[in-house]
Amino acid sequence: MSTPGTPRRPGPLAPGAGAAAAAGVAAGAVTTGTGALVALVTGASTDPLVAVGAAFVDATPPWLKDWAVAAFGTADKAVLTAGSVLVLALLAALAGVLARWRWPAGAVLVVALGAVAGLAAVGRPDAGVLAALPSVAGALAGLLVLRALLARLPAEVESEDGVPLRAGASRRGFLQATALAAGAGVVAVALGRVSSTLVRGTAALREAVRLPAPARTAPSLGDVDLAVPGAEPWATPVTDFYRIDTALVVPRVDPATWTLRVHGLVEEEVVLTWDELLGSDLVEAWVTLACVSNPVGGDLVGNQRWLGLPVREVLARARPTGDADMVLSRSVDGFTASTPLEVLTDDRDALLAVAMDGRPLPAEHGFPVRMVVPGLYGYVSATKWVTELEVTRFDAVEAYWTQRGWSERGPVKTQSRVDVPRTGAEVPAGDVVVAGTAWAQHRGVSGVQVRVDDGPWVDAELAADGGVDTWRQWRLVWAAEPGEHTLRVRALDPDGPQTGVPAEVVPDGATGYHAVDVTVV
Ligand SMILES: Nc1nc2c(c(=O)[nH]1)N[C@H]1C(S)=C(S)[C@@H](COP(=O)(O)O)O[C@H]1N2
Ligand SMILES: [Mo]
């Protein structure tokens, strides 16, 4: 309580706090916008928002990542961005309120936020010397704008119960300046993002690529696609292919400067250039890629025709030493995957892929070069934007997701899925087509069975085989009787039926039967 006679020092939440918070948010927008514009020069991953988001992604514990993918699927990045913007707005509002109360308190918060973003940017694996510049410039701009706005703050802002403004203070002037700053910040962010996609996009680089004819083309296939309406096509359209990675900004890699360095436990270090890669005998293969985070019945799996150089040929040039048992592939943005050496040197089509569906890889799928390894989940094999293969040992180094609680090895588990009918569907009694897909990469699907309620497992009809590395479609005509029914599916590989024991995706992939509940009317 203030005693009569002592000058009253208003607390941080005295009337006017709302206006100060608005000034803080406007200054925050200017900070973010400045950072985005400076990042046009220093690189997309140095954008303060992007850098903090990326550091957050890397620090995300497995349970949270798992939950995010389960809850938001491939929209997890959009949710993360929205969340970051919200947190930033709240912190900026707090900085405004604190700065009005005691300028140093607010200024320290702004500087601290800038420092966190700057450190996050400097800590990125692809950071250059100027990585912190956007954050520093942004924080400075934010401080200047916050100071200028607070100077315009009327000494007593009109409170809700109508305390009048002091003479000379202009509420309108303050609001206009705040709106102007906020607008400028938002425009700068938008401008930064748009120019970044234009300037740093890979469209032109992709257009310029001339792919060589394959030395070995993929075999021509029979009726691999049963074309049941509502079922996923056998060949996943590239635009529908699931995307999973830790990259908040898609790395931009110019083939002209791309190299693959093969080093570690090798007789001879090898550096492969783009021209050498395209000049090699490239092979084409259909391979079904699956994510370890795919829940039972999920769609983080897709099948495509890849073109690339077998990894074993590059390894043969480098000649791994006898004690090596693993290859740690590393991407330009620091992601790593640990792949057993024997899987990369046997006769399967483990590729350094340059094309998908006959076209250069889309940027999000690893342009210009990624790995594709039949039989292993993506997190231990399918490194996109790959630039390095370190031949090493499992007991010497851990890959990105292993450090975060996932298994060091990730062979794909045999799985199957019902695509039609969907769960919750109402279908008319009589003949109902049940259809879907099943996969057991590098072992091959030898059968698929369906069970209605507690009935017997019944063999489904299989589509033509696209090879052991691809998924296989199946269908079954079911004589459906009215009532509620549960349809379950299981795939068979050479070792027998897939397991029905449910397991979570962590640490090495989900198991259990996919089941759909339908109502027959
Ligand atoms: N550089 C990089 N490569 C990566 C990842 C990543 O985060 N960064 N994620 C892996 C995972 S977990 C999967 S499932 C596949 C997915 O490949 P796609 O996005 O082309 O479908 O990429 C793999 N390669
Ligand atoms: Mo994955």
From TrEMBL:
<feature type="transmembrane region" description="Helical">
    <location>
        <begin position="129"/>
        <end position="153"/>
    </location>
</feature>
<dbReference type="GO" id="GO:0043546">
    <property type="term" value="F:molybdopterin cofactor binding"/>
</dbReference>
<dbReference type="InterPro" id="IPR014756">
    <property type="entry name" value="Ig_E-set"/>
</dbReference>
<keyword id="KW-0812">Transmembrane</keyword>
<protein>
    <submittedName>
        <fullName>DMSO/TMAO reductase YedYZ molybdopterin-dependent catalytic subunit</fullName>
    </submittedName>
</protein>
<dbReference type="Pfam" id="PF00174">
    <property type="entry name" value="Oxidored_molyb"/>
</dbReference>
<dbReference type="GO" id="GO:0020037">
    <property type="term" value="F:heme binding"/>
</dbReference>
<keyword id="KW-1133">Transmembrane helix</keyword>
<dbReference type="GO" id="GO:0006790">
    <property type="term" value="P:sulfur compound metabolic process"/>
</dbReference>
<dbReference type="GO" id="GO:0008482">
    <property type="term" value="F:sulfite oxidase activity"/>
</dbReference>
<keyword id="KW-0472">Membrane</keyword>
<feature type="domain" description="Oxidoreductase molybdopterin-binding">
    <location>
        <begin position="249"/>
        <end position="396"/>
    </location>
</feature>
<dbReference type="InterPro" id="IPR036374">
    <property type="entry name" value="OxRdtase_Mopterin-bd_sf"/>
</dbReference>
<dbReference type="InterPro" id="IPR019546">
    <property type="entry name" value="TAT_signal_bac_arc"/>
</dbReference>
<feature type="transmembrane region" description="Helical">
    <location>
        <begin position="78"/>
        <end position="99"/>
    </location>
</feature>
<dbReference type="InterPro" id="IPR000572">
    <property type="entry name" value="OxRdtase_Mopterin-bd_dom"/>
</dbReference>
<feature type="transmembrane region" description="Helical">
    <location>
        <begin position="105"/>
        <end position="122"/>
    </location>
</feature>
